[in-house]
Amino acid sequence: MIVLWLRGAVAGRPGRLLGSVAGMALTVGLLASLGSFIGWSSRTMTHRALANVVVDWQVLVAPGADAAEVLGAVDHAVAPALVRSADYAQVSGLTAQTGGTTQTTGAAVVVGLDADYGSAFPNQLQTALGADAGVRIASQTAANLHVTVGDLVTVQRPGLPPVALRVDGVVNLPNADAMFQAIGVPAGTAPQAPPDNVLILPTPAWHALFDPQAALRPDSVQRQLHVRLHRAGLPPDPQAAYVQALGQARNVEARVAGRAAIANNLAARLDGVRADALYARVLLLFLGAPGAVLAMLLTLGIAGSGGERRRREQALLRLRGASRQRLVRLAVWESLALGAAGVALGLAVAALTVRLAWGVTDLGTAWPGFAAAAALGFALAAAAFVLPAWRDASAVTVPAARAAAGARPGALWQRLGLDLVLRAAGGAHFWRYAGSGYRLVLATEGVAQTAVH
Questions:
Q1: What is the pTM for the complete model shown?
Q2: Is residue 134 within 8 Å of residue 203, measured between CB atoms?
């Protein structure tokens, strides 16, 4: 019975069935493409945000605290990918004599870094001139002192004799804002700009020069642990990744309370991106939802155009003893068959779209959107075929269903051609604004943002 019904439906009304399948495929394809693009864009936002963070955490060890214990707490809590120490010393200034003149800077910072710090955290230090190791001076400081590789720079240590160092290299500090940020102080109470005068030493040389200063002026030196986490375990969604990164840092802070403070650069970057991801998601939903609604209405309209014929077919079956349950069961099988065809075609179109239009090769990230679109496709098929069949079987009598339907006059908007007028007006409106060159521009002064094209 089911096979005969499906064969008769295909043979008797192939145009309407193909139109219904095409409408469902359009709905499923549009929603699957939109859902996969939203997921892919969120994943891309997270990836690009993480790529711009060099040091995930900067753990400031409190004066008198044991750095080894703090490191042990970090290892126990998150098992970081790598950790390197960075020592900071505040000095009164730097002095250099070049070309018969003497240049002196104001307050400066001398940093002690491990020998492999540059390879552990790429882009934290960029060598502009000279060696990649030894005594290195920031490019801005070199310009202030008029020095280059091979020149002597005198460090004015507070309460201690000055010491002269020969410059081995000149470096740029592209992430100076984060590298020299104030950690563990209320927002707005610390300097907003990084220091202009920076000197970088190997860790052994730093300790030889500034351990005496630490004993004399402990407030002028500090030790930090620069941490890079295993990022593969972070969720692809910026909001979820932010929550996880923030929770990990708070876990460590609870373990080292009173002994260390954490600057969570990773969570700070994700915090700026998650708002952009939410905005992009809402924007894309607003742009794609009207198209999906139109496709659904098109499918329902095509399926509903054969309502009179369906009622007559149901009446013939009821005259031959078919029950209401049998009629609804036939409609269910018909909706499943057409829904499967529409969903399969729509998902194929969506997969092709995301590959060609957006270059998404990993369709594993798109399965939630595909699954939701497929479920909606089957629901649409049920609304187009099962609900009308159940309504007619319950409310329409056999004589009423067998009665010939006369010609119905068109609606007023159809007779006036209002649909054509509105389409022409919409096209003209779109052409006017699309041709104006108008674009949304996001100003990012001081705040890292991510935009979706």
A1: 0.69
A2: no
**Dist CA 89 CA 76 (whole Å):** 29
Q: Which of 40, 96, 1, 57 is nearest to 334 (CA)?
A: 1
Cα dihedral 32, 38, 43, 47 sign: positive
Q: Decide if pLDDT at 444 tops 70.
A: no
Question: Residue 414 corresponds to which tokens in the numbers above?
Answer: 């159809």
User: The tokens of 69 are what?
Assistant: 């214990």
- Please give the Cα distance from 387 to 370 (Å, whole number): 25
Count Cβ neighbours within 10 Å for each residue of 65-92 and write b for 16 or more, e otherwise.
Answer: eebeebbebbeebbebeebbbbbbbbbb
- Rounded to 10 degrees, the C-alpha dihedral 32/35/37/40 comes to -120
Q: What is d(CA 12, CA 339) in angstroms, rounded to the nearest whole number?
A: 18
Question: For residue 194, what are the CA distances in angstroms to 91, 161, 174, 190?
Answer: 15, 26, 11, 11
Q: Which of 98, 208, 177 is nearest to 143 (CA)?
A: 98
State both tokens at 300.
Answer: 């329902």
Say which amino acid occupies 165: L
- In whole angstroms, what is the distance from residue 110 CA to residue 97 CA? 19
Give 407 or 379, the one with higher predicted confidence: 379
For residue 445 the two structure tokens come to 């002064």
Q: What is the pLDDT of residues 183-198, one digit of tens each?
A: 877 665 555 678 889 9
Between CA 222 and CA 184 the distance in angstroms is 12
For 401, residues 6+ apart whose C-beta sits below 8 A from its C-beta are 311, 312, 314, 315, 318, 392
Q: Return the SS3 of 108.
A: strand
Classify the C-alpha dihedral 207-209-214-215 as positive or negative.
positive
Contacts of residue 135, Cβ cutoff 8 Å, sequence gap at least 6: 153, 165, 166, 167, 168, 169, 199, 200, 201, 205
Cβ atoms of 86 and 111 within 8 Å: the answer is yes
**What is the enclosing helix (H) or strand (E) of 87?**
strand 82-91
